[in-house]
Amino acid sequence: MASAVFPTVRWGERLATFRPRRRWQGIQPMRAVLLFAFFGERVVLCDIEGRGWSVPSGHIQEGETPERAIRREAQEEAGIILNRIQPLGVYTLEEPDGSRWYAPVFIGDVAHFTTIPDSSESHGILLIPPEDVQEVYHLWDPLIAEVFRYALTQYRERFRPGVPLREIYEQFARVEPTPENDTSSHFQR
User: Fold this and answer.
1) What does the alpha-carbon distance between residue 69 and residue 59 come to, in Å, rounded to a whole number?
2) pLDDT of residue 189
3) Under 8 Å between Cβ of 49 and 36
4) What is d(CA 88, CA 14) in angstroms, rounded to the nearest whole number?
5) Between 8 and which of 17, 27, 101, 186 could a Cys-Cys bridge form, CB atoms 3.0 to 4.6 Å apart?
6) Whole-number pLDDT of residue 188
């Protein structure tokens, strides 16, 4: 999907567009981060106060790297601990005065879920099939649609969706044999 075309749209007073990137060198100022988080073939959305359903996102705090900021925001807004993350690209936002700022965008997969902190602005999460996101997303426009398509394609190419084998082994390790699940008794005469 290297030939994807990302339109420029208006978000309030700002102009916004997206460019695929795998590094952040030379991009300043970076003010916010966004994450397209996947749990298998489902997208993680957060119900954010005053915004509605959206991807985990937020401001970069002083001294924080984009990677550290998105891991923090993922836990604060979605209660997710991320396994792998990779840069997807960057949103460029142009203010009415012509100044620009940038928001790095990541794709990642969920390692596990935790409790959303009480101090969070999130009301909860939704695990939703990618084809249904446009029905609930707080701001759906041609740019968001194209970035979602690109994120899903890149996720499928770069990550192997599914449950890691270690999790399957851990599940089986907790199962105690009983007459109902002990298959060895079925083969005895």
Assistant:
1) 7
2) 40
3) no
4) 22
5) 17
6) 43
As given in the structure block, the two tokens for residue 44 are 């993680």
Measure the CA–CA gap between 63 and 42, rounded to whole angstroms: 32
Structure-block tokens of residue 11: 């978000």
pLDDT at 4: 77
pLDDT, block means (10 residues), the chain with 189 residues: 80 96 90 96 95 96 96 96 96 97 97 93 95 95 97 91 60 59 45
In the structure encoding, which two tokens stand for residue 90, read together? 């960057």
The answer to whether 13 touches 99, Cβ cutoff 8 Å, is no
Predicted confidence at residue 168, as pLDDT, reads 59
Measure CA of the first residue to CA of the last residue in the chain; give whole Å: 59
Tokens 């396994």 found at: 83
Residues whose CB falls within 8 Å of the CB of residue 70, separated by 6 or more in sequence, listed in order: 33, 34, 35, 56, 82, 85, 104, 106, 108
pLDDT at 25: 84
User: Token digits for 168?
Assistant: 């399957």
42, containing H or E segment? strand 42-48
d(CA 113, CA 124): 12
